[in-house]
Specification:
heterodimer; A: alpha/beta; four-stranded antiparallel sheet; B: alpha/beta; Rossmann fold; FAD/NAD(P)-binding domain; 4 domains; five-stranded parallel sheet; 33% helix; 23% strand
Amino acid sequence: MTRSEKQKPEKPDVRRQDAGETRAAKTRADEASATETNAGKTSAANRSVLVVGAGISGIETALELAAEGIEVFLVEEGPTVGGTMAQLGGTSLSDMPAFCQLAPKLEALRQSSNIHLITNASVREIKGEAGAFEVLVKERPSRVNENCTFCGACAVVCPIKPFNTFDEGLALRTAVDAQNWSSPPQLYNIETEVPVCVETCPANVNVRTYVGLIADGKYTEAVDVVRQTNPLPAVCGRVCHHPCESACNRGKYDEPIAIDALKRFASDYEMKLRQDGKLPFPKPTKKKRNSKVAVVGSGPAGLTVAYDLALKGRECTIFEAAPVPGGMLWLGIPEYRLPRHVIQYDIDYIQALGVELKLNSPVGKDPSVDDLFKQGFRAVFLGVGAHQGLKLGVPGEEELEGILDCVVFLRDINLGNKEKPGEKVTVIGGGNSAIDSARTAMRLGCEEVSILYRRSRLEMPANSWEIDEAEREGVKIHYLAAPVKMLGKNGRVSSMLCTKMRLGKLDASGRRRPIPVEGSEFKIQTDCVVPAISQEPDLSFLQEGHGLEISKWNSFVVNEKTMATNRPGVFAAGDCVTGPATVIQAIAAAHVAAKSIEKYLEESG
Amino acid sequence: MSPEPEKEMKGKRDKPEKGSPVDRAGGESRRQEVDAAPAGEIRIGAFICNCGTNIAGFLDAKDVSDYARMLPNVVFSRENLFSCSEAGVTDIKNAIKEHKLNRVVVAACTPRTHEPLFRAACEEAGLNKFLFEFVNIREHCSWVHKGERDIATQKAKDLVRMGVARATRLEPKEEITTDVKRTALVIGGGISGLTCALSLARRGFMVTLVEREKELGGLLRYVNVLYPSGVSAGTFVASRIKEVKKSSRIEVLTSSTVQNVKGYIGDYVVSVSSKDRKSRDVNCGVIVVATGANQLVPEGHFGYDGKKVVSQLQLEGMLRQGKLKSKRIVMILCAGARIRERVYCSKICCMTSIKNATLIKKTVPGASVHLLYRDLQCYGVANEEAYLGAKAMGVRFVNYSLENPPVVENGRVRVSSPLSGREMSIETDLVVLASPLVPREGAEVVSRMLKVPLDENKFFLEAHVKLRPMDFATDGIYVCGTAHWPASVSESISQALGAASHASIPLTRGYVKVEPIVSELVDEEACRGCGMCAAVCPYGAVEIVETDKGPKARMIEVACKGCGVCAASCYKRAIGISHYTDEQLDAQVRAYLKGDE
């Protein structure tokens, strides 16, 4: 047979789905022993075999089959073929280097027109039976398109250097890599594995990239990367509970990368540049016509939605009921943790994109959501947060004065009231709000501040460093204790009857359930109790007949994938959907909402 | 692919047509002519491979590359980190196109593995693949001159210079294509031969199965049960035999032996003689050797007498027939194996012994089994489990050493175990010797007839331990089962299926391509038909035919392996080897002698 006869076989029955990520290979298996065919008379067109794995066994099988004229689909999990043998120096019983033994096979593989090599792929589903299998193969995108000439220039400049798994982690490689450049296919590939920090972050902020940029001294570029997925870099640099950092692989070796502090530093650096006029704020994005979106609430969720949509050219107006922006950021988090100018800076940036922010502008009754639509807003986003403190549910709570919910307490302080709520303050709860309340009370000069928590320190949801700081500042924490009854004098709380608790079996939250210890009651002298056990959304602002579906936890019911409420054009995300959660969780949910709003706007013309 | 450069070049180059006689007497003048000015411009590209540090670690590859560029006709040279990598091959292809190369010299490793790769690269770039010359500066240079960098560098230059000289005289060639008869002959009717024949038949090929014995089944006929399945070996092999006999595509010739083999891949003629029938010729495309092995009869080892001291195969027989009467059994492993006369490990005796020891423990109440071993081969999960299982059942494993082997006395076995440091004296009424598999006595005859090699233990030797484990170096002949090396039943079956799969490639295609490196009658006038060449040819590739000019030698190209014995024996210098012409080799030698001048 001459070269000209060596033709590519007819296009195999391979169809791509999902933007090239999945393909199905229809193959008629040819366990030739099962089919009594006459040699030489069978046509190659309907005979094909799928081989899973392209190590030496897979390659040899594929070559053997291909040599008999059978069409072969060779599916390999990794980016290149050769398997373990390609990694070896030599093999037993042969003095030739392992790769030298492999190389001719690889070349034969590359040259065989009967073999369809599918790398970066795995078999997902096998249907049918011998003779007529249909196999679903999922291909991971290589993220390098077919124009790649294998010049290698990308690898030279690539700043991301993960461990090289091909040489068993002895050295680093680059994120864009050919893995084993001696093996087919001759393609660069960007590994799609998500680093643990990025994966852990609810908003999947590209941590690896921005930390890498900071390492390279590219601070403003780093903040730009953060802003791709997080519009509040300065805020998050201070108050994020940074699960990324807790999960950081470096922590297994010594200490995790100080991701949070790095972000804070880079955004502070950028803030300083902007404040000194050395770096301009971004220009407003060009707005599309008839694209008004109303955002109710200027907390992390609302700001994120407005930011995302502004970048898409939508005209966003944020309605904030409070006289200050930021929602819980301003009203809930004490200033010592999150300076106000930092919040303001992130909001300034968002406003610079052309987002309008209206303070003292509650929405609900006047204007109602319906009114907003009438005013020409094509979509409404509800990000009103969870500002209603939950009751303790103990006797005396309702009647006595001096029992002040943490939300109310913190809001008052954060709006400028500097009055002490009492002298002996007892905070009840173990979350960040409880710590915030206690530390704030300390700062107001209260004589004695203590925290009552019904489980042990291990179960405390507050950030551990916050607990440390609170104790260092003199806050007393009573673990395994819960209030039973509020006792008062002259209509004001004077002491509290408490019980000791012990921990039982794990509950639904994965923490051990606290159980009261019988006969262990004790009294605490106090003149101010601050319950900080949890919050729920306060949806009383809505007018009658708003038509929105509300859950039994007093939150909006939304489609989890789109954040759409039951009313067309109305979306919700953040604490008002999930109950109290973190800033970054609100941002993550708001991204989803923004995406759906954009889609909704596109689809509804 | 763009215009075919080799055709273009054919026109330019004053080259005799293939097969046309060349005036050998005027060889000197012709060489002059080539040296003076070939008709077309010769443009050689030289690629010096670093092989990572395999080459560049021991000689100055850059220096060699620079040197190559200075050589006559070389228009391009460069180094590659790994010439065989994708990048290296692409480099070569690009250079062929960019620099209009019409000869390529790669100085790297061994043609045994890499010549096809570089030839293919040339072909892909539009160059006839026989215009490629491989210079081995790794095995022949860097590896043998480690620590002598300057000398190694100089030798590499010499080798490259010689390669370039030969490349200048290379000519484009076409591969020889020959049809393949779509039938197979399997020698040996044991489990390997049966499996291989069945597999080939199921693929649709006609198979002739030749068995020396009266019955099919081989060694398995004497085995009791198979491990680890516990299936009766007799039943198992009988079902295979039944299938073989039922198949309309398999012709079984029992009590038959191969007497003579002629021909080559695609067209073998095998004479098979039979006790009850006349001898006959079988024409087939491929041959599979599945002649199996024998168990060594352990005469002279540990007092073997076949009664109180028996072989493992005899024990199998006793178990099969329910004739085992003994209760105190001692097995001695490595009986006749891993000793000076027979150094190899037969690999399967350990598991056979463990299998039988377990079976005795299970079926004979109150039996004691001692297993005396030197080392235990229990590779694989199932085998290790079987070993642990036997231990748990109470089979006693006692280590012994080669220096101090067990002594079998009347009713006792004395053994000193280096592990316990004690001498034990074990009462016994049956000693079982696990003796190794040894090659069949007929293996040498078959090897001579097929012209395929045996290893030092007289087992058949494959073409390459890793790359071609079921092939022989001779095309169209394959090996499987214990003929190749001691193997368990499942290993034999895997090999048989592998050999069948490999043998199916030429059978399915219906044609094969053969390297055109064959002998040629380059000077018909000079040939006197003396027949010396035909007599020395190991492959039967030369015959003497009557022509109108008298008796002349004629080459059967497809059978020729290009060994050159005929050419060397021809006192008239009428025979040459294509692609390794006298002229090409002469140029290489001259280039070497020229030195650095």
